[in-house]
Amino acid sequence: MAKNRKINVQGVDIILYKTDNSDYISLTDMTKAFREGSSLIGKWITNKNTLEYIGIWEKINNPDFNYPEFGVIEREAGSNRFIMSVGQWIERTKAIGLEVKTGRYGGTFAYKDIAFHFAMWLSPEFQIYLVNEFQRLKEEENNRLKLEWNLQRTLAKINYHIHTDVIKETLIPKEVSKRQAALIYADEADLLNTALFGLTAKEWRERNPALNGNIRDYAELEQLVVLSNLESINALLIKQGLSQSERLIQLNRVAISQMRSLVENRAIKRL
């Protein structure tokens, strides 16, 4: 199941859904702004110029596109008896740029590039408003993602300070040098890196010499959430007096369990 969103274009609510990081827009909803309604979709896809455009799009983006069958359709297009429907197009060519969905939020949907082409065919003015609203929606989603990312980074940093305070209280002996203290911090950080990422910071840098920053800068949101949890859990384990090897085993089990849960939850939300 894909996640549905809506945009409003010239007073008409238009459903969008996202699947496999691709945005599809309801052509059926778009036609509600015009007197002829959904019958316009059939006229549009029967048009020879339309077929040429969506055929080229499929050729570029769809490795399973039935190009020989598309050639047959191209030869048929333009004749007085030629009729094409979205369902026929998908069935004959194995197209992926158009979809027909049933149910409450059903209708004909198109990948954004093709949807914009359809909107231009309907009305250049309508197409401009549609593109503007779509871009506004994407900007909102990107800003929300940045906010979530920054929040998780902040949580990770806050937990790190809590974590290092516990180390100072329980692991660092009196009158150690700053260099020795730094080594203890680095060991604990690498303990968490190993539990979550499977390698230390040094090992990550050696494997990724072209990348700037550190392993945590390239972490997924889910990994940052788990990292925050691991830091808190490790602080408790330190207070309990567990050795590094014992803590590593426990933290790794927690990381596996929590990452599995978060990844599965993300997959469910994408359905």
Structure description:
- There is one protein chain.
- This protein has 271 residues and is α+β, with helices and mostly antiparallel strands.
- It folds into two domains: 120 residues, no CATH class; 129 residues, no CATH class.
- The protein is 65% helix and 11% strand.
- It contains eleven helices and five strands, in the order βββαααααββαααααα.
- Strands 1-2-3-5-4 form a five-stranded antiparallel beta sheet.
- The longest helix is centred in the middle third of the chain and has 47 residues.
- The protein starts with a strand and ends with a helix.
- 23% of the residues are buried.
- The C terminus is likely disordered.
Helix and strand topology:
Blueprint: E1 3-9, E2 12-19, E3 22-26, H1 27-30, H2 39-46, H3 48-61, H4 67-76, H5 86-93, E4 98-101, E5 107-111, H6 112-122, H7 124-170, H8 178-197, H9 201-207, H10 221-239, H11 244-270
Antiparallel strand pairs: 1-2, 2-3, 3-5, 4-5
* Largest beta-sheet details: 5 strands, antiparallel
Shape: elongated
Helix content: 55-70%
Describe the strand arrangement of the main beta sheet, using strand numbers: 1-2-3-5-4
The overall pLDDT average reads 82
User: In total, how many domains does the architecture comprise?
Assistant: 2
Distance between the termini: 3 Å
Number of strands: 5
Q: Supply Rg.
A: 27 Å
Order of helices and strands: EEEHHHHHEEHHHHHH
Number of helices: 11
